[in-house]
Amino acid sequence: MADHEYRVWAPRADRMRLVTDGASTEMEDVGGGWWRQTGPAGEYGFQIGDDDAVRPDPRSRRQPRGVHDLSQTFDPAEHAWQDGEWTGRRLAGGVVYELHVGTFTPEGTFDAAAAQLEHLASIGVTHVEVLPVNAFNGTHNWGYDGVLWYAVQEQYGGPAGYQRFVDACHRAGMAVIQDVVYNHLGPSGNYLPLYGPYLGDERNTWGEVVQVREPEVRRYIVENALYWLRDMHVDALRLDAVHALVDDPDDHILEALTVGVASESAHQGRPLTLIAESDLNEPRLVTPREGGGYGLDAQWSDDYHHAIHVALTRETAGYYADFEPLGALAKAIERGFFHDGTFSSFRGRDHGSPIDVERMPSWRLVVSAQNHDQIGNRAIGDRTVDVLDDSQLLVAAMLLYAGPFTPMLFQGEEWAASSPFQFFTSHPEEELGRLTAEGRISEFAAMGWDADVVPDPQDPETFRRSILRWEELGSGRHAVVLEGYRRLATLRRDWAALTDPSLAANRVVVDEEARTLRVTRSGSLRIAGTTPDAAHDGRGPVDMLVNVGDAVWEAPVPLGATLLFGTSDAVALDDAAVHLPPGSGALVALPTQP
């Protein structure tokens, strides 16, 4: 077997040994905490100092027998890539679909997920966002307990299966977004602190923070990002919980990632995108670097989710309390964030900063009506399908597809999937499993949920309940809702106003007492002047009408308006108004002026 050069950063060791083929070989100290040695390619590990225990490589590309066992060499260049004609896809105008490989299909593999891409295309998906796949301890997990950031979980198909999945997505015209976690490491199988100062003294929700101020740890993160984008042909990264990254605001790891990814994008000649999951409501994240920002491409906005959720469900516990007025949804549509320096009762302080709506394109905010966090972090992982009827579910979908932001769907929502998405783990360590279960129960106290109904994350049934049931698609309410999503996807593709990035071009009128909302999406093309036949070629303005009140709304519309979409058969247009029963919505093409 050909020799392979093994390198490892282990500044805490005064001696390092490479283990291959059962033999231990002293490694050479090459300075800066780095050690090197050559040996046969294949399974390997490291012995740190005088400890004879064999540890996995912090940069391991593959862990065939789990995170506590030997690493294995893997050369991504050996894959015969089929995406040579792929030139990438910008996020602007796109539709994101969030999926968890282990529960997306009964098989729980990349190959099985790839077989469903035609279905995703039918609902307009352009970007497939994959929850974290890096190696974790156990057989099933959300993915946020990963400890080896380069290795792909074997149960999903390992790195080779991942490459086949990326190829399949590109063949289907879809970009791949990989969810990565740089703010913490999982609780089991994390040997990195034995090698070097990967973790600091500070803590966040999940444990010790990653020491991003340490130059080699910073390099470790940036190189990992480039590994996915370069070697695994991924198109974008979703950066988990960036608010938990502790760094110098004026020399931040996020900006370092932006610089590295921009360089790689220029070299590859295709767009490479960075999306932050952030609780900060901070525009600086997505402000270009030349404007004093970090230069990320997009960030999540939970405010839009909260406003939609409260408007339709009337749930106002915990962090939903501030979103009770329908005006919260109106403000989110107009201003991007609801909390933009306003008082957050849940946090007990002012929160967020305002967006420059005249300059920032609205697609920079990724929004959802459901996602893995907002479902899985509920007491029983229940979806809104349990409390909303078909028309209300399609109102939520309409607010995504026809709203001003980048919509993100969560697996199964497009057919009103009946399976919950519960929090599940498979920690082999009994004590860790017990602590995880107890921690979940304590987290729900602030939301006022009954601790007695919280499922045990360690129970295999909790995982099995969360697997999608694809047999539901063609029947009953599932078929009705799916057809609505497909119709909305077609309209989003055909009508320019629905993807126009100008927040300032939207006009919003809310009636708080009647609980009705009208959003006119005229688009910047309309402001510049449109042709008289614009209403017939997808270039005219569109009204989005929402009735979440208790009475019928006869929404006036001008003569010549056309009903493009109604969330139920009871939605109807006559010469002067759209008839909207409670819990319904409509899209109406407005006539243009000569």
TrEMBL record:
InterPro entries membership: GH, GH13_cat_dom, Ig-like_fold, Ig_E-set, Trehalose_TreZ, Trehalose_TreZ_E-set_sf
Record field: catalytic activity: hydrolysis of (1->4)-alpha-D-glucosidic linkage in 4-alpha-D-[(1->4)-alpha-D-glucanosyl]n trehalose to yield trehalose and (1->4)-alpha-D-glucan
One Pfam family named in its UniProt record: Alpha-amylase
Cell compartment(s), UniProt: Cytoplasm
Pathway listed: Glycan biosynthesis; trehalose biosynthesis
Segments crossing the lipid bilayer: none
EC identifiers of the protein: 3.2.1.141
Keywords: Carbohydrate metabolism, Cytoplasm, Glycosidase, Hydrolase
Region feature (Disordered): 50-69
Keyword Glycoprotein: no
Domain Glycosyl hydrolase family 13 catalytic: 98-440
Main location: cytoplasm
Top EC class of this enzyme: hydrolase
Domain of life: Bacteria
Similarity comment: Belongs to the glycosyl hydrolase 13 family.
Protein name: Malto-oligosyltrehalose trehalohydrolase
Source organism per UniProt: Agrococcus versicolor
Lineage of the species this protein comes from: Bacteria, Bacillati, Actinomycetota, Actinomycetes, Micrococcales
